[in-house]
Amino acid sequence: MDYRHLFSSDVPSFMRSPVREIFRKVDLSAICSFAGGYPAAVTFPVEDLRRLPGLVLDKYGTKALQYGATQGVPELREAIAARYGVPVSRVQITTSSQQGIDVCTRILCDPGDIILTTEPTYLGALQSFKAYRADVRPIKSIVMDREGIVPETVVSDDPSQSRLTPSSGPSLLCGRGWPQVSGTTPSRSDSKPVKFIYVIPDFNNPSGETMTLEERMEIVKLARELDVVIVEDSPYRELRYSGEEVPTIYSLAPERTLHLGSFSKIFAPGFRLGWIIGPEELLEQIYICKQALDLCPPVFDQYMATEFLTSGALDANLVKTKAEYRRRRDLMVSLLEKYMPAGVKWTYPEGGLFLFLTLPEGIDTIEMYDEALSRGVAYVAGSFFFLDGSHRNTMRLNFSFIAEEKMEPGLKLLGEIVRGVICK
Amino acid sequence: MDYRHLFSSDVPSFMRSPVREIFRKVDLSAICSFAGGYPAAVTFPVEDLRRLPGLVLDKYGTKALQYGATQGVPELREAIAARYGVPVSRVQITTSSQQGIDVCTRILCDPGDIILTTEPTYLGALQSFKAYRADVRPIKSIVMDREGIVPETVVSDDPSQSRLTPSSGPSLLCGRGWPQVSGTTPSRSDSKPVKFIYVIPDFNNPSGETMTLEERMEIVKLARELDVVIVEDSPYRELRYSGEEVPTIYSLAPERTLHLGSFSKIFAPGFRLGWIIGPEELLEQIYICKQALDLCPPVFDQYMATEFLTSGALDANLVKTKAEYRRRRDLMVSLLEKYMPAGVKWTYPEGGLFLFLTLPEGIDTIEMYDEALSRGVAYVAGSFFFLDGSHRNTMRLNFSFIAEEKMEPGLKLLGEIVRGVICK
């Protein structure tokens, strides 16, 4: 039977994750894989999890097994509200932070509506945005850091394509040329409004970078000028290994920011729990929408997360998790310094799970990928994280998931492969 | 701040569940509530759940806490495939059966596209359909059973509004006048195609009724004539207390049926797990869509469900669950016979959680609701389950959730209230 006449107009815009497709084809456990973005299994609080289910059943009884409130169970909402200093009425629990991205897009975007994003950006967000046929456009960002990528000059190919509603003028240019909206996407819907700005300000996936306070204020300024919402996707915020904490964008513009948090990196991703902190008027629409999406987040898991958080076990585990990842980050950086040829640069992440590599101009990490894979090392090509597929000389390396003993042979091999390509 | 200019065009169509709104306003535990559709807490396998988490950690290790496959973990897909005799490739695990409804609508419906449904129908499905701005139209069904509602004659107010793509002619009329499409909804989009037929063939929510094999074959015939998909929503199928099992619609038309199952009534709703069985070509689009929705269903919960199912604990618990609900159904029917005045009719459900009451013509169960609530008894007005808000003399009664000792005082009270309204 042919189903094509039955599919909705969204279907042709559904986008497979290149990362998940890599996982489908190759047994990454057999090689040195810096692809993927999984947390280290060693950070999972296994011992707590032997205790928590019984504790939840004792304390909450069958309530923990029943349907729950669409907004999330009150106990978890209160725990999140207390941890982040916001009113409970501003907290919605989500069935994963990915659902948070999806539902924000759902309530805000019609096909052709414009979403602005910094680049490189999270692939899972692009999947959601494209699945709603939004017109996603880049805000070019300076990529910084001591070993960082050279700051880019923002050039719009055709200035007439950069027009946004209501306006984006010279006032948006800051000294470092950022943020400025560049019209690199086709202008099929220039009359459509901008609906929100999407940013991953803390330890960006894939770049590992963190936005400065000044840059966050620029994002807020842009959002206020355009009169749009900011979706602040911050699943790694609790994972800082060095440097100073920067205020959330939510704290700078609570009236227009939807801040997305996640338990995946501070508890375990197998529980699919996240949260949205934002204005009640926006959460109200998300609440009604979520009734139709899945009625409520997983209830038993929410009570386990509540107990994990309120008992102090989360913070205790976080100390160990951060020590583990700090060591891995430092190891990766020292190994890159040891094995990468001259001309290769990388970001220095103050937290999170990723580091971003820039090879000399002209090298194509997609072309290089088959050789790397056949020789036993995997990464994700950086161009996947750019809307126009540019930056083909970049790659994302994950330092959280790979077995620690594979890090040196893997990076040594990668260094050799890069050196070979440079010498060609 | 005013957000109205930012909302998507779907937002005005979001529909609050009247049932969930009742829950919000009243503490139903303080009264005799036949509203809601929760399973009885006594059916939850609490003792198994003290054992399962540790067992899952021992057997699957940290894999149970990590991200999992978007299709669901292979072990659970295999267990579902084996239980229902279908290939694993035809099984997608969902984050609740509600997500199954939502994602089927997402991949099939554009705004204005037509969904046909039998009536009365599931409110959560209507929420999903309306949230995508589908044009939901009724297939009038005969409501049967020994104490049942009188069969309805199907009349379309304006036959020109009944035109469907490709056609709905006299061949669709069967002896009992069913199924026939009635154009009761505004015809703003008559040029739009029908995309699927939605049915709850087993122990319908809200009516409690089960479609005969003949009626299922009529649905298949209609779907084949229209060349559309059937969404067979069957969360109660495993809960049969009497009568003979009827083949699934999926078994009659596996090439065009998406069969939705749920763990909520056979394990615990707090786990938010369901499944879709259907053609690979449709599941492939659901798979890609689900990456953007929430990446994967809850992994730890999936492994608990796997062990619960494959160990035989599910079947053992199901025997107890069915005995419990059979007793409750029989009790409710005997109490209705005892307390309801002449002229009140009800369905006799062979399974599921609900029974549907029809009061004499002219009585309005929405108008009656405030009095009922103030006197200490709650139900859901039946007209909520009809697209045009008709059948205002009906109500849904749930027999699974109410404390058993409240059933007699509750139905006695309801009988008095109904008697009072009849005598007015």
Give a summary of the structure in a few sentences.
2 copies of one chain form a homodimer. With 424 residues, chain A is of the alpha/beta class.
Question: What does it look like?
Answer:
- The structure is a homodimer of 424-residue chains.
- The first copy, chain A, is of the alpha/beta class.
- Chain A is built from twelve helices and 14 strands.
- In chain A, the strands form three sheets. In chain A, strands 2-9-8-7-6-3-4-5 form an eight-stranded mixed β-sheet, with helices on both faces. A four-stranded antiparallel β-sheet of chain A has the order 10-11-14-13, with no helix packed on it.
- In chain A, helix 5 links the parallel strand 3 and strand 4.
- The longest helix of chain A is centred in the last third of the chain and has 27 residues.
- Chain A is globular.
- The termini of chain A are far apart.
- At the A-B interface, helix 2, helix 4, helix 5, helix 8 and helix 9 of A face helix 2, helix 4, helix 5, helix 8 and helix 9 of B.
Task: Write down the overall geometry of chain A.
Answer: globular
C-alpha-based Rg of chain A, rounded: 22 Å
**Portion in strands of chain A:** 5-15%
N- and C-termini, Cα separation of chain A: 50 Å
What structural class do you assign from the helix and strand content of chain A? Answer: alpha/beta
Number of strands of chain A: 14
**Mean pLDDT level of chain A:** 89
Instruction: Write down the oligomeric state.
Output: homodimer
Strand order of the largest sheet of chain A: 2-9-8-7-6-3-4-5
